[in-house]
Input
Amino acid sequence: MSDNEIIRAIKARRSIRKYSGESISPGAIEDILEAGRWAPSGLDNQPWRFSVITDARSKEQLAPLTAYSRIVKECAACIAVFYHLPDGYDRDKDAMAIGACVQNMLLAAASLGLGAVWLGEILKRKAEARDLLGVDDSCELMAVIAIGHPAESPRSSRKRLSSLILKQ
Ligand SMILES: Cc1cc2nc3c(=O)[nH]c(=O)nc-3n(C[C@H](O)[C@H](O)[C@H](O)COP(=O)(O)O)c2cc1C
Output
């Protein structure tokens, strides 16, 4: 089985939900956003937009909108990832591109020694979250990424590859 730096990084990334409380440098946030920006997208339409939340007050306000409020409060930064509707051409394909963008950012965070988790549950209250962040309705919230210095090393497993390959 092949094993190179990228494949090892993909397999080693875990969702991190506990953080040390240490802040993250603006340079690290920029590196993470840069990784998101280089995701593939259908027709190269790059339909993603980002809002970065680092101040405690904004995180406190965002937290009640999700069952994962502890994570939002304790992380050093949240990146809210939006779908910029005027750039959209196909909702399914645009959503997949934004998923690729999120995964790029999760991998970038891990590569910098940071811990991150993709928060999807907050989408139940996505319009409230968007309003709170001062983003207008040309954008739809697709995900929030919580990031911090990791204070846990969780394990994970995956379904066996043989069970994922459909028989003809
Ligand atoms: C679309 C999506 C939504 C998710 N939403 C949440 C969430 O709201 N809260 C959470 O704690 N984890 C969330 N996760 C993280 C998953 O629980 C996690 O990726 C999965 O359990 C596998 O663990 P791993 O990332 O450590 O490999 C989400 C992941 C994805 C891809």
Remarks:
- The first strand starts at residue 48 and ends at 53.
- DSSP finds six helices and four strands in the chain.
